[in-house]
Structure formats: C-alpha cells, structure tokens
Amino acid sequence: MQSRRPVVLITGGSRGIGAAVAQLAAARGYDVAITFRSEREAAEQIVERCRAAGANAVTCQGDVAVEGDVARLFDEVEAVLGPISHVVNNAGITGKSAKLAEASVEAIRSCIDVNVLGALWVAREAARRLPGSPGDIARSIVNISSVAASLGSPNEYVWYAASKGAIDSLTVGLSKELAPQGVRVNAVSPGMTKTDIHERSTQDAGRLERLRPHIPLNRIGEPEEIAEAVLFLMSDAASYITGANIPVSGGR
Ligand code: NAP
C-alpha cells in the first residue's frame, strides 16, 4: 500500500495537452502542480478542476527558458505538495511558421530557448530531485516530443522539428543515467492535436482541416488522447518501460 499520493509537476499545464494531462492525473489519484508562463486565469481554472476531482493542486508562474525560474518552480511545488514523484516536461512553442530561409531570428531563438533549453533545465532539476524522493512511490519523467522530430515540418517550422529531435536524444540519454536510481524517463510524441498552438503559429485557420487527409486515422487528435499515453508511462503498468517514445499521431 502506498502511504502518500504521487505528486506530478506539469510544465505548461494551463492549456492544451498539459491541461489535459493535469486533469487526467487528478482523476487517477495524483496531486498536481501546473506551471504557466502568462495565462494565470486559465491555469487557475485547470487547478480548480483538479481539486474538484479530489487532488491537491497548485499553479506556479515561471518561464521554463529561465534557469532560475525552474529551480524556484520545483521549490514552490515541493513546499506545498511535498516531494515530486513525476515530471511532465510539456511546455513548448513553435514560433510563427515559415520556410527556414525566411524564418526570423526571434522565432528560431525563442523556440530553442523554450523547447530545448527549457526542457533541459526542467529535466536537470528533475534529475537532481527525483532520485532523492521516497522510493515507496514510482518516479518518472515524461518528455513531450513531437512526430515533427521525424517528419521535419518542411515549409512550416523546421527549427521546431529540430528542437523536438533534441527532446528525443534527451529522453534516451537521461533514461540511461537515471535507471540505476529507479527513475524512468520516457517520451510521448503527439501528432496534430487540437490545441491553441496551431493558431498561435499561423494565421491560417483552415490549416488543420487541410492537413487532416494526411493523417491515416483521418482526424485531428484530442489532448485527452495524448494525456492517456502520458498517464500510462507514469503508471506502474509501465514499470519496465524506460527510454521509450510513444507516437500518438493517428498513424502519421
Ligand atoms: P499550447 O496549447 O499552446 O499550450 C502551451 C503551454 O505551454 C501553455 O500552458 C503555456 O503557458 C506553456 N508555455 C509556453 N511557453 C512557456 C514558457 N516559456 N515557460 C512556461 N510555460 C510555457 O500547446 P500544446 O499544443 O498543448 O503543446 C504542448 C506540448 O505538446 C508542446 O511541447 C508541443 O510542442 C507539443 N506538441 C503539440 C502538438 C499539437 O499538435 N498540439 C503536436 C506535437 C507536439 P501560458 O498558458 O501561460 O502561455
């Protein structure tokens, strides 16, 4: 019997995939911390839903691209919820879509800052803390990559695809580093999923519908379908799985 509830920290939990992971985790018996960068109200709403499902839940503001923010986020969460047992490294952006030749320095730099450096700061902090968390509860990290890492996102955001390639390498390497301490590290690679990220990257409102026929299952994914894979990897049902990367992409 577990004596306490597992605690999951989800970066970028105010919207989209992170918000879906938070709510499913709350429903499955986790205490939940979600971080956000700017949308406090959205984050508070998600935390209220987690509490309604019976979880202890908190929001914390911070930019994952800022190294000092990341350590503070972990401190704030542990002060309220206790030792963190799981981390979902989810916060991510694309930048405005363009061919690489026309991409702005700002789009590329901010994407790499958030998706690569941010994910590394979060993974590093998790690697410092999770091995020391009480071993009566399973501990794991789930990195949110993308099928873009293998598809390359030509004509849209090649730099974003490259940032997710880095997440795949991080997952493999860190899984081997932390395995001896009993901390599993895996990734989920979503395909096209219905979230705000698309509208923020392009003014093209019809883009998702136009891309739909290229998805073998012929539909856009729901954030809840990504969350199911994340919760599986966090669970004891995945106790012998580390270094894995599950595509949840409708076959793309
Ligand atoms: P989203 O709906 O745009 O939500 C992004 C979340 O990340 C928000 O909570 C946002 O916080 C947070 N965030 C962004 N930049 C941040 C920063 N610098 N520091 C802290 N938090 C930050 O995106 P999503 O579609 O759910 O994407 C989540 C993850 O899935 C990303 O890693 C993305 O690359 C990956 N993914 C998405 C798709 C897809 O089709 N949606 C496909 C493949 C992979 P605020 O609310 O405060 O802005």
Distance between the termini: 40 Å
- Counting DSSP E segments of at least 2 residues, the number of strands comes to 7
Q: Structural class of the secondary structure composition?
A: alpha/beta
Which band does the percent of strand residues land in?
5-15%
The biggest beta sheet reads: 7 strands, parallel
Principal-axes shape call: globular
CATH architecture: 3-Layer(aba) Sandwich
Percent helix range: 40-55%
CATH topology: Rossmann fold
Radius of gyration, Cα only, in angstroms? 17 Å
Please give a handful of descriptors for the protein shown:
alpha/beta; Rossmann fold; 9 helices; binds NADP nicotinamide-adenine-dinucleotide phosphate
Describe the protein's architecture and organization.
There is one protein chain. The chain has 252 residues and is of the alpha/beta class. The protein has helices spanning 16-27, 40-52, 67-81, 105-129, 148-151, 158-178, 197-201, 207-211, 223-234, and strands at 7-10, 31-36, 57-61, 86-89, 139-144, 183-190, 245-248. It has 9 helices and 7 strands. The chain has one domain (7-248): NAD(P)-binding Rossmann-like Domain (Rossmann fold, 3-Layer(aba) Sandwich), CATH 3.40.50. It has a 7-stranded parallel beta sheet, sandwiched between helices. NADP nicotinamide-adenine-dinucleotide phosphate binds at residues 11-18, 35-39, 42, 63-65, 90-93, 114, 118, 144, 146, 190, 192-193, 195-197, 200. NADP nicotinamide-adenine-dinucleotide phosphate (NAP) binds next to α1, β2, α4 and α7.
